[in-house]
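Task: sequence design from structure.
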């Protein structure tokens, strides 16, 4: 699948209108139903190349639930603000860790 193309498993006659938040491939066994002896083969079926698609589907699910409804509330803006705060705290942690107050200064 190239950039801007439909997934290979998508069939408009079967699935109807395209939804970017839906996975059209063959469903795999959920992790909760995997037996202990099958964990190795289950992990072997996972690949890093599917990660961008999973992130895109998660983004579109979030968009459909919080941002795109007609009467949206404060939730998407609050989630975005909290996400930005966590991100900027993480990237500046190395600079702020030296400014902690200690009981004794050697």
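Answer:
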């Amino acid at each position: 699948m190239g950039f801007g193309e439909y997934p290979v498993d998508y069939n408009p006659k079967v699935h109807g209108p395209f939804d970017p938040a839906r996975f059209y491939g063959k469903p795999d066994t959920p992790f909760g139903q995997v037996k202990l002896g099958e964990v190795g083969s289950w992990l072997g079926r996972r690949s890093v190349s599917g990660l961008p698609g999973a992130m895109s589907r998660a983004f579109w699910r979030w968009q459909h639930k919080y941002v795109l409804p007609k009467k949206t509330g404060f939730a998407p803006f609050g989630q975005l603000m909290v996400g930005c705060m966590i991100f900027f705290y993480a990237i500046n942690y190395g600079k702020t860790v030296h400014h902690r107050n200690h009981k004794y200064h050697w």
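Residues 33 and 39 are 10 Å apart (CA to CA).
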